[in-house]
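Student: I would love a firmer grasp of how sequence relates to backbone shape in proteins. I am handing you a single protein, as its sequence and its fold in token form. I am told such tokens are a discrete way to write the fold. I hope you can help me see how the letters and the tokens relate. Take your time, and here it is.
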Amino acid sequence: MKTIMLVCAAGMSTSLMVSKMKKSAQEKNIEADIFAISASEFDDTLAKKEINVVLLGPQVKFMQKQLATKLADKNIPIDAINMQFYGMMNGEKVLEQALKLIEG
């Protein structure tokens, strides 16, 4: 089971991306817990859940360094979602991006 956390400003547009990613994961028979949170929920969620990868929505890309510091000792990869994939709401490509980060 892969746990993929998407972080955005308010969690609105990213929830659509979560739906598309879940659909893609189902089609590929990949067991994944994919969810979106707002940036303000980051610390709480990190403390409560086992997370494999963090993806940032374009609105919070500027927070990558700050959040990466919090993930460094946990060995959790973090990256910004590819702008093109996000703009097209391409859940399959964003899922692939997440899985590549998990696999290193």
About this structure: The radius of gyration is 12 Å. The beta strands are 2-8, 32-38, 53-56, 78-80. Residues 61 and 80 are 6 Å apart (CA to CA). The chain has a mean pLDDT of 95.
